[in-house]
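Late entry, written up from scratch paper. The run itself happened at the end of the previous shift, but nothing got recorded in the book at the time, so transcribing now.
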Amino acid sequence: MNPDALSTIRRDIAAAMEAAADFAERPAGEQYQAAAGDGAVIATVGPGGQLLDVRITPQARRAVDNLTLGEHVRDAIRAAEAEAEQARTALLGSLTIGGRSVAEILANPGAAAMPGTDRQRRQR
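Output as recorded:
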């Protein structure tokens, strides 16, 4: 392996680890919300996707049948989780290791050789 490439990869990994730690330690106040059923249900998740709150409007409790209300709850939670995942993916996509985005590496770790290496990583 090229010593300069190895040094760059080490530096990139350190920066990526620091950014990931910063992301994981975001303030507890950072939340992602989504609604379903025309606002009948609002779900809130934290940065890691953990469910923090589900709110159902009083009108929805009276006017929406149980099955539909359950679907709205499911849809709101999934949408809020997708918001949190989108934020995580945006962070990982902005980080690079050896010229490849961290999101790309995580999605397909053995897809291509790292710059400065002679061969692809072995598939497991």
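The radius of gyration is 21 Å.
(Scratch paper discarded after transcription.)
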